[in-house]
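Below is how a single chain appears once it has passed through the pipeline. First comes the sequence as given, then the structure the pipeline wrote out for it. We keep one example in the README because the format questions we get most often are answered faster by looking than by reading.
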Amino acid sequence: MQTLKQKALLALAGMSAAVMPVISWAEEAAAEVAEAAAEVATINAGDTAWMLISSALVLLMIIPGLALYYAGMVRAKNALSTMMQVFAVVCVGSIVWFAFGYSLAFGDGGDNNAWIGDLSKAFLAGIMPGDVKGTIPEVLFIMFQMTFALITPAIIIGGFAERMKFSAVLLFTALWISLVYVPIAHWVWGGGFLSADGVLDFAGGTVVHINAGIAGLVAAIMIGKRKGYGTQGMTPHSMMMTMVGGAMLWVGWFGFNAGSELAADGVASMAMLVTQIATAAAAMGWMMAEWMTRGKPTGFGLISGAVAGLVAITPAAGFVGPTGALFMGIIAGVVSFIAATSIKRAFGYDDALDAFGVHAIAGIVGALLTGIFVDTMFGGKGLAEGVSMMSQFLIQAEGVGVTIVYSVIATAIILKAIDIMVGLRITEEEEVEGMDLALHNERAYNH
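Resulting structure:
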């Protein structure tokens, strides 16, 4: 006969045997969760290396790429000043992004997050080298996003080239990044309302190109035409410089588009491939349209078409396949050619370097067509569950419309304020002399 104590011990042993597997399973599950969390928070060396290269490639797009591209398209007397403006935008924009731009664009805005972030990361407070964003250091993510914030106002220079005061350019850059770029970047990429509505913008079709192109048009209209526009020749003074700059834009754009995946993976690889296909197709589309209407193909047309293709594929790069990219490129090249020639002549605005005709128009084309070519029937990534092609097209149209309306209103207010403070335009005498000598006491060429 077992004693009461023995029976109790046997009962406890049985309970322990029954409970042990449960405890063991719980411990294993906890270990798996901890391991998964550790994997999420671990910096991936390959992804980090790719994003370091991508950040450098996008900066290469601006200086020297865009600087050369724009400087070659203006007259020789304004070449150095145009290049200086691009460099100055990079300097001013970098400080604004560090001070509060990144925090407002990507910070947690709490109850206001649909509209703007907060200042919790102003001056990058508390951000350490080991902090992780996805699989890369957050400091690298900050740098990569900074290059996007820099190229956007630099593109706008094309709208007011050869006639805005240097002091006005500096003020405009600081205010425009703060009041226009940052909010729209938050709406699309920082968890804002456009992102919540399902707007697709892989690498900046709305945030960068439509935004900048529309602002360039507003600036061109508000500052007025260049002296002698329409009656004097204002052809590019160095097409070689423009072609070299355009080539740097093309190569650097792989960091812009493929880098926006924030990882070295298949999506980044596809983004690189479709970028190349769309760019080549758009360059041929613009050149052929020019050839048929004007009798001869030009280097200016070829490189302008290439840039239009780069712009058009930007919002779609991570979502569409090669077939979609081909059609997007052809359409963007032809439509941008029409906008940069016939439409500009018809309305008479002086968008000096086609910031609107190339960036806004190709950006709109690309953003809208993303809603169509994302479908798997064209080799795209596929529409979200429950979303039809027409629904996605309308969502894309919402993103385009919001960006246009906000950019027009905010840019006009900023330009008006700057005109009151320091004035927007150089004097007629300075314009005749050329901005290089009049504003900087230097020449691009000392022949």
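The beta strands are 132-133, 136-137.

See the next section for the split statistics.
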